[in-house]
Design a protein that fits this description.
6 helices; 2 domains; seven-stranded antiparallel beta sheet; PSTPO5379-like fold; alpha+beta; 22% strand; four-stranded antiparallel beta sheet
Length: 289
């Protein structure tokens, strides 16, 4: 395998970290190699799953059958590395900064640039990501300790089955944030307004309800996994569920993002809502494919 995509400790001061186009170009050039949760924070980010065109319709139906975990933000044409509705000058094969390449369900490489293995029959899906609502939560005063500590949210495989479609199946993957009880309530109310970023939590304070026996054993082995006194573990459906499903399908080739290296889009987050606002417009997001 090539060198894994690892987080950088400092952001390169030579580009505008708030501009999604600048961030993608910095990723493409190698100037920025870190996690994307602290860049382009007012813009939508997404999970990447690229599958052969012969399996694309089945995977789309799988996503639509499991919309909380796999909300579709965009789908490419076969072989295209662009999704114009999501961003200008977007090259899916080079602009994510970290990739996982699977053959027959086995991880064979973790390159920073997937263009050497890209095929003309691949169809890319960009799926909603919880990174997109973290700025919204912070704007409402919710403390996200993992961000304060320079970390990312941990992920876990649960005991809950997803709805299978064709060869795609598997357990639900969740992300976890350690929150005070008051922040857990606030985060639930807010995130419920954003179904394209996974919506409301699937569980609050009860990891055993999801079959999670040990928070220290995260899916992928990263993220904030320890609770402080007075904190509750709050779990959201996670787009890594799609990665689990394509591995189970044992496709001849599948390419996904590497953990915490997301597709940074040009779509602005909907206006950051007031807690008293009953609903929030998502007019800035494209219609689902």
């Amino acid at each position: 395998m090539t060198q894994s995509a690892l987080p950088a400790t400092d952001l390169d001061p030579g580009f505008d970290t708030s501009d999604p186009v600048a961030v993608r170009r910095a990723i493409r050039s190698g100037a920025f190699t870190g996690f994307t949760n602290l860049v382009a924070r007012r813009y939508v980010q997404g999970n990447l799953v690229a599958v052969p065109a012969s399996h694309a319709d089945a995977f789309e139906l799988y996503c639509r059958s499991n919309p909380q975990a796999l909300p579709i933000l965009g789908r490419s044409e076969p072989g295209s590395r662009a999704i114009p509705a999501l961003g200008t000058d977007l090259d899916i094969a080079r602009d994510t900064g970290g990739y996982m390449v699977f053959r027959d369900g086995e991880l064979i490489d973790t390159p920073r640039d997937a263009s050497p293995v890209w095929r003309d029959d691949l169809v890319s899906f960009v799926l909603g990501c919880s990174f997109s609502f973290e700025a919204i939560l912070q704007n409402a005063g919710v403390r996200l300790r993992h961000l304060d500590e320079g970390n990312v949210s941990a992920m876990y495989e649960t005991n809950r089955d997803t709805v299978p479609v064709g060869p795609f199946c598997g357990k639900l993957i969740v992300s976890m944030r350690a929150l005070s009880p008051a922040d857990a309530i606030r985060a639930t109310i807010l995130s419920a307004q954003f179904p394209r970023f996974h919506g409301a939590p699937v569980s609050l304070g009860l990891p055993e309800d999801l079959g999670i026996a040990d928070l220290a054993k995260s899916y992928g082995g990263h993220g904030l996994t320890r609770l402080h006194p007075g904190e509750l573990p709050v779990f959201w459906a996670c787009g890594a569920t799609g990665q689990n499903a394509v591995r189970a399908a044992r496709l001849p080739l599948c390419i996904t993002h590497y953990k915490a290296h997301m597709v940074v889009t040009d779509l602005p987050l909907p206006d950051l809502p007031d807690l008293n606002t009953p609903s929030v417009s998502t007019k800035d997001l494209p219609d689902e494919c």
